[in-house]
Amino acid sequence: MSKAKIIPRLQSIDALRGLVIMIMLLDHVRETFYLHKQVSDPMNVTETEPALFWSRVLAHLCAPVFVMLTGMSAFLFQLKTQSIEQTRHFLLKRGLFLILLELTLVNFAWTATFPPEVIYLQVIWAIGLSMVILSMCIGLPKKILLSVGLLIIFGHNLLDQISFKDIPILQHFWLILHERGWIEFEWLRIRTSYPVLPWVGVILIGYCLGQFFQPKFSVQQRDGYLLLIGMVSILLCVLLRLINVYGDHAWQSYDSVMLSLMSFFNLTKYPPSLLFILCNVGVGLILLIVFERLVRTRFVNILVVFGSVPMFFYLLHLYVLKLLYVVCVMLWGSTTASGYFSVSSVGQLWLITFLLTLLLYPVVNAFSTYKHANKQIKWLKYF
């Protein structure tokens, strides 16, 4: 494969990853400076202001796109190395590394307690464990991987009513696999925020979609297939939502058009419902095509910088937000009856996000430059 063929594709993937990183930053700013108005899952549309609701809905794009691109990047890695064993080995090591980060540095950034009393198994955990599972699947026929991925995505909501509460060992496994909840021991509580089964389906689909980046597909062919899949995914989400029978909780029609729209797009993230996955993966694929067309623009180049070192940015922004919150509490104390320091509007959350983007860009750019100039340093590829 020629270098000219692969660079633009990788840049478009990095650009899409960079975009969802920016959106993720907004959501984590919300979780840091807007705790007096926490949102449920799914959200209560009658109690959530529209600006907060739509900001949260925008953030729903992040996890599905991250996981899909992880699967897609795994296929590209295999395409580059031409080695199933090397790809399997890399996925296994990187997946275990992400799980370790979730249990240590990431969890400490959220809880600030050591040894931890509570461990939150969140998106990095889900991506890491999905990579480990994908590493075990590498080498199977793609038709099988595609079939299993689709079966998981379309069928996992049928498992929503299953519970093993009377069998603790099975219940613990079930909470990790499919049901959001608490695993409790005398000395530790574990919150399974991201049950992993649906995310395995997404990473398998992402891996299968990676085949369209093979040299035998022209740019026009690839974009045509991805656009078709993205549009069908969104259309299927809308049709199933209108039927209002399967794929998520039922939506309601209100006298207010805004409330009705909010109810319609109020999809379940924990675990991600069928409609949640269809909608956000579909939008992600369309955005990927858009970024391929805009690959040389300044805006996309900025996104590429953030998307080229996602793990570095993830850890960096968590600790910057933690530091900023501590400084704000020291300077102004709590500003709400609930005891939190909080800003007063969603608009201020967007402003903080914009300013943090400007602040962090030089640091991220410097690390990205260092990483790509020192490819012989093996540990850098994990960031």
Automatic annotation (TrEMBL):
Keyword terms: Membrane, Transmembrane, Transmembrane helix
Domain of life (superkingdom): Bacteria
Protein name: DUF1624 domain-containing protein
Transmembrane domains' residue ranges: 57-79, 91-112, 118-137, 144-164, 196-213, 225-243, 274-291, 297-316, 349-370
Keyword Membrane: yes
Residue span, Heparan-alpha-glucosaminide N-acetyltransferase catalytic domain: 9-220
Native source organism of the sequence: Acinetobacter guerrae
